[in-house]
Here is the input.
Amino acid sequence: MRGEGDRLRGEIIDAAVKVLAALGPEDPFSLRSVAKEARIAAPSVYIQFSDRNVLLLAVLEKLFSEQVSTRNNAEEAAAKAGGGAWERLLSRSIATVQFGLKHPGHYKVLFEGRVVPRLNDPRVANFGRPLLKRSIELIREIPTGPGAERVSEDPERLALLLWAGLHGVISLRINKPTLEWPQAKELAEQITRAIIQPRERQGFRTGRMSDGHSLLGRRRPR
Here is the structure.
């Protein structure tokens, strides 16, 4: 039945994520190891995924879809609260860091060499582009603050710098847990602000929603 096949496919992808998260960059990855993690017979994996590349592509598709959904939801919440391009970009930054720290296994698979070096497929280059593209679009809309000067006037360069900075926060928090780090939300906001140098609108404040994401709203008059 189609429903059972879809469920099995999802379970195999989840098992592959767990296997990849536990591997070092040079450790071997096999469909048999995924079958063992999923507690199914190896032929069941081959029925769903003809080879390793097909499974790895499915893993990337799932994890990048999570990234897109997480950031879009955060941006939508900021927009509903009346936030402009700066507030929406900031919400995306905070959501990115919080998701990475909440799901370190998923983050490692995506960004710490668990999949891409093992994958021989030109389509791999396209998975992260929608995330970068949206950052570029928002940065183009954000004016700089009075007297502020950005390190570059190129929105793509700024988007790449922002990605590198947020990646650093997540990676260091995961791999250096013994250091006394500031709050992840605080670091994400400071990095985003330092790179973008925004001109903020009067009457808005950064808050926190019940799920920890950034939320922008109007200040109440005193």
Observations:
- Residues 1-50 form a domain with the Arc Repressor Mutant, subunit A fold (CATH 1.10.10).
- Strands lie at 204-208, 214-218.
- The radius of gyration is 20 Å.
